[in-house]
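User: quick one, sequence for these tokens?
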């Protein structure tokens, strides 16, 4: 955290190289979030680069009282939402390679976990944009309700309500499909 604040001060003082530290710290988690929003690796890479440019341009607006990561995610996600609205973005259904993120003892277990992950990804993609973002921030990025509220600029109660509604919709879809999908019911 102290390093982060120091990097921000250095960037604002004109040391552009310090911004590389910020990018290195946040590029992977931000890419993972945006990839799950877009379902397209190329679009996600473009949006992450654009988001880091926006963050750089707006760094002087960061008031340094709140969490920098929450502020960065807010700028990035708002940028993505703006782009989605501009382009009337349609979610592309592609497979995301999950194998490297899952450790399994057997190929069969790995296969079933990958199938569940892909199914959950498809289900999340059916949610409205605002609920999808909250689900991703909570369960992919493991952010607190307060951090999510700060990022999407809504109250804590709204975060809880949208999360509850999204999980309920996911459970209803699974139930309608006649499935039993433990990840949906395990979301807390």
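Assistant:
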């Amino acid at each position: 955290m102290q390093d982060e604040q120091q990097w921000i001060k250095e960037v604002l003082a004109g040391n552009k190289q310090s911004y590389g530290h910020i990018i290195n710290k946040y590029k992977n988690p931000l890419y993972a979030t945006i990839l799950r929003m877009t379902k397209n690796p190329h679009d996600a890479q473009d949006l992450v680069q654009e988001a880091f440019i926006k963050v750089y341009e707006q760094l002087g607006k960061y008031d340094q009282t709140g969490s920098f990561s929450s502020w960065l995610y807010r700028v990035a996600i708002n940028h993505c939402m703006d782009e989605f609205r501009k382009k009337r973005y349609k979610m592309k259904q592609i497979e995301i390679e999950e194998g490297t993120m899952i450790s399994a003892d057997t190929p069969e277990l790995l296969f079933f976990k990958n199938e569940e992950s892909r199914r959950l990804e498809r289900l999340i993609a059916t949610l409205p944009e605002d609920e999808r973002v909250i689900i991703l921030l909570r369960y992919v990025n493991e952010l607190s309700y307060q951090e999510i509220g700060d990022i999407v600029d809504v109250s804590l109660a709204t975060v809880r309500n949208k999360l509850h509604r999204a999980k309920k919709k996911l459970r209803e879809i699974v139930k309608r499909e006649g499935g039993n999908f433990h990840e949906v019911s395990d979301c807390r």
